[in-house]
Design goal:
It contains 14 helices and 22 strands. The radius of gyration is 22 Å and the shape is globular. The structure holds zinc ion.
């Protein structure tokens, strides 16, 4: 019997990896094996350690990867998979491939920096500490990518084919509709990847991709994300609050530090800042996007104009490219990044990683957290166990570069910028299904989020919903 095995993002929000095994083919030899996503585990150590474990089936026996989108928790283990012997194609949309060509080498670079840091400080139990993969290995893995347009069917083997449909989560993001032939019958498996917000209203401003996931879906087996399974996004416009927080920080001579993913979130946020400045709601203070990736991501966004919502298209028509706005700087080199530390004037610094797990944001936090004039503003999900979650929860200190940094800066969070649908939005989308899936497995959620969403779906839809467990195998009947 063909099966799916959940190799990640089960019981947690990172490390997305779902293996489909057809278990046999017509000639009776070993089945075709496809990974849907190949993400990095992030956050608590017990999960991160799994980045170092082998896949339950050898990497060289996996035949293909279908990638839903370019976030690291979905694509960040690909270079390691290739390093371990995977030789098949990695299918993704052209926009996802463009973003991966920026995100993966950067991840390799960070892995190398991490290993170097541990070797210098002697803080690893391994000697020498090695990177999970290097920048060069990440670049190497890009050669395996094969572009696939949305809504085009790709045959993987006689039993398996797939098609991408819009997920509206980030640029290039898609769900994977997989068709599996078993015992002469066709079964449709739908892997949602991450699902974007269904409504692109005033409460979710600045969205730069298609609004809402593909409606009218159907599936025999649905594998769905549940990141926001136990929380609802506020239904207020975040912009007045954002403007107030920035004005207050400027008045006390402080700087606003925003940890944000360099991809999507940063682009969305700078357009909102620009609009607030142009309408006079915040002063024209310098804005620095401190990420070598952010500028490349902006260029990729400008290239893929087919993905804009009408409102995003209008903003771009009105203001042009963020790379050309006066007062907005994109720091590329480490040198430029360090210079920002010298500046004491009120400014906005946007830097990654979004959950403060690594990257240049750490320097900015280490420098700005001890000063009560500053503001640290979260505009994205903070996975438990990350530094971002520690700071957001109101801790009095946080460990950065092996040192405890006191947290005296103001800490605030705006939840409206999320790129994930919340339970009412998910239900709204699920109601558009043309038929009820035989079974739904919830993945990509903390245990509480997944189980609350399961209960809600059972109650509201009457569906057969289960929470996927790490390493669990489920048969496709
Ligand atoms: Zn994502």
């Amino acid at each position: 019997m063909p099966y799916i095995q959940f190799l990640g993002a089960a019981g947690t929000v990172t490390g997305s990896k779902h293996l489909i095994n057809t278990t046999y083919d017509a000639s009776g030899k070993q089945g075709f094996q496809v990974l849907i996503d190949c993400g990095l585990f992030q956050g608590p150590k017990e999960w991160r350690e799994r980045n170092w474990q082998d896949t339950p089936v050898p990497a060289r026996e996996i035949d293909a990867v279908v990638l839903t989108h370019a976030h690291l928790d979905h694509c960040g283990w690909l270079p390691r998979l290739v390093k371990e012997g995977f030789r098949g194609p990695i299918y993704a949309t052209p926009a996802t491939i463009d973003l991966c060509s920026v995100v993966l080498p950067d991840s390799g670079h960070l892995q190398e920096e991490d290993a170097e840091f541990h070797n210098k400080k002697g803080t690893s139990k391994h000697s020498p500490a090695l990177p999970l993969y290097t920048l060069e290995e990440a670049q190497d893995c890009l050669k395996s990518f094969k572009p696939v347009e949305v809504e085009t069917t790709t045959q993987l083997c006689p039993e398996l084919s797939f098609r991408f449909v819009r997920a509206a989560h980030i640029l290039g993001s898609c769900m994977a509709e997989v068709e599996l032939k078993t015992n002469g019958q066709a079964r449709r498996l739908l892997f949602t990847g991450d699902i974007g917000r269904v409504r692109d209203s005033q409460v979710a401003p600045g969205k730069v991709v298609h609004s809402g996931p593909q409606e009218g879906e159907s599936a025999d087996l649905l594998v769905m994300e549940s990141t926001y399974g136990n929380r609802q996004h506020p239904d207020t416009d975040p912009r007045p609050e954002l403007a107030r927080l920035i004005r207050q920080t400027v008045e006390r001579g402080g700087t606003v530090v925003v940890p944000a993913f360099a991809v999507e979130r940063t682009q969305k946020f700078v357009f909102i800042l620009k609009a607030l400045m142009e309408s006079g709601q915040i002063p024209r203070i310098p804005v620095t996007c401190d990420s070598p990736m952010a500028i490349k991501a902006v260029e990729i966004y400008m290239k893929h104009s087919e993905e804009y919502t009408p409102r995003a298209a209008e903003l771009i028509r009105k203001y042009g490219s963020p790379t050309e706005w006066p007062g907005f700087t994109f720091a590329l080199t480490a040198e430029q990044s360090k210079k920002i530390n010298d500046s004491q004037f009120p400014s906005v610094i946007i830097s990654s990683s979004g959950m403060a797990t690594g990257g240049r944001i750490l320097h900015h936090l280490a420098q700005r957290l001890p000063d009560p004039r500053n503001l640290v503003l979260f505009i994205g999900f903070q996975a438990p166990g990350t530094r971002g979650a520690t700071i957001k929860e109101g801790a009095s200190e946080v460990k950065i570069f092996g040192e405890f940094i006191p947290i005296r800066a103001q800490v605030a969070a705006l939840e409206q910028f999320s790129d994930h649908a919340d339970p009412p939005e998910l239900l709204e989308w699920l109601h558009t299904f043309t038929s009820q899936p035989g079974v739904t497995y919830l993945v990509h959620g903390e245990p509480q989020a997944s189980s609350q969403l399961r209960d809600l779906m059972k109650k509201e839809l009457g569906w057969n919903v289960q929470v996927a467990a790490y390493m669990e195998k489920v048969e496709v009947k």
